[in-house]
């Protein structure tokens, strides 16, 4: 049976075709992917925002039939916008979760990630970074390391590549037969710092989300590694899929001018990366003081929240669940001036 996005209700505009057997789902500002084999067995790549499990299951059942479940869940990395529905889906489906071994501290409750950096600027999504959930999730017992041979559990013809920088254990997925690349957040296909870009989804190659990237030298090397694959189609965690000569030209431009196009002019991790290991965070560079940021945080945050509210109405109120989650958990977040050290070894 051929897998096509047409099996899902045409009223659901938050899914999109990527390549044969690959369907993307946009959850407010982040993408996840359903990837199938010729027999309609499939895996879920990333798990979106908190509150999105129902939408993910609805689209999966539209594609593969009622009661369907994947053979595995593959994580490109464990940031909050890629694991929001993970615990709910994993508990219901009872399937294994795979990630790079260096992501394990953040998926087993051992360590928080290096804190996001709203001082990088660039737009409301960056200025709002101080609001984003910071604590790790814990799926101990279901999560395990990806195979060392580069194979992707549950998928034939795919391989995973270690693409660190955005996180230490970040991975991307590549299918050699048609050169389809699932990027994760190693680079983006829209401006990830801009809330306006979230709503317009203008296709452009950009670097990884700067407010969450903690090692820029590694990030540069990862973009170069992915460009060397000469992909035909790229599907990132932020932005719509791109393909063809324009995509390759912009990707090559990103490689050649990475410092100018991707690396912020200032920020906590610009001159010194976070140091992490298999236990999590080992050492952080000092926080950057920027007197202009607090006012910008308030202004940009209000603008972004308003934009997300409008987006929610047109997209089945999915973003409202996300914003409610932020509101419900505000008491657990440190203020902007506080150092985020909870769960660090």
Structure description:
The chain has helices spanning 53-64, 80-83, 86-93, 104-107, 124-127, 195-200, 216-227, 244-256, 258-261, 293-314, 318-328; strands spanning 15-19, 22-27, 30-36, 42-45, 72-74, 97-99, 143-145, 158-162, 171-175, 180-184, 233-236, 242-243, 275-277, 280-283. With 345 residues, it is α/β, with parallel strands linked by helices. It has one domain (5-282): Metallo-beta-lactamase, Chain A (4-Layer Sandwich). It has a 7-stranded mixed sheet, with helices on one face. Strands 8-9-10-11-12 form a 5-stranded mixed sheet. Helix 7 packs antiparallel against helix 8 (244-256). The protein is globular and about 50 Å long. The N and C termini lie far apart (49 Å). 50% of the residues are buried.
Shape: globular
Radius of gyration of CA atoms, rounded to a whole number: 19 Å
CATH architecture: 4-Layer Sandwich
Strand order of the largest sheet: 1-2-3-4-5-6-7
Which stretches of 5+ consecutive residues score pLDDT under 50?
Answer: 1-6, 312-320, 322-345
Transmembrane segments: 292-313
Organism: Adhaeribacter arboris
Keywords: Hydrolase, Membrane, Transmembrane, Transmembrane helix
Biased composition (Polar residues): 331-345
How is this fold's topology laid out?
Layout: E1 15-19, E2 22-27, E3 30-36, E4 42-45, H1 53-64, E5 72-74, H2 80-83, H3 86-93, E6 97-99, H4 104-107, H5 124-127, E7 143-145, E8 158-162, E9 171-175, E10 180-184, H6 195-200, H7 216-227, E11 233-236, E12 242-243, H8 244-256, H9 258-261, E13 275-277, E14 280-283, H10 293-314, H11 318-328
Parallel strand pairs: 4-5, 5-6, 6-7, 10-11
Antiparallel strand pairs: 1-2, 2-3, 3-4, 8-9, 9-10, 11-12, 13-14
Helix pairs in contact: 7-8, 10-11
